[in-house]
Design brief:
Blueprint: E1 2-11, H1 17-27, E2 31-36, E3 42-48, H2 50-60, E4 68-76, E5 86-88
Parallel strand pairs: 2-5
Antiparallel strand pairs: 1-3, 1-4, 2-3
């Protein structure tokens, strides 16, 4: 099992980014969360198959149609969430 944390910058709040990320992550069989940060970024924690996390990373570069992603930072993580699904926080 692998885990990665992402910080997504751009127009990513108020454009269904977290809910769309949840949908994509669940389709890929991942668990974790997407959370708005006070600085306007979105933080994503993805836990599951490494290939699925890589596919989510590619999706995060664009996000949903109304979003404008300027940058995505990826960090290795050893955080393993106890959630059974993917939460929007």
């Amino acid at each position: 099992m692998a885990a990665a944390r992402f910080l997504v910058r751009g127009k990513v709040q108020g454009v269904w980014f977290r809910a769309s990320t949840r949908d994509e992550a669940l389709m890929l069989g991942l668990r974790g969360y997407a959370s708005n940060l006070s600085n306007g970024d979105v933080e994503v924690l993805a836990v599951g198959d490494a290939d699925a996390i890589d596919r989510l990373a590619v999706w995060l570069q664009q996000g949903p149609p109304m979003a404008r992603v300027d940058a995505v930072q990826r960090f290795a993580s050893d955080e393993i969430t106890d959630t059974q699904g993917f939460e929007v926080l």
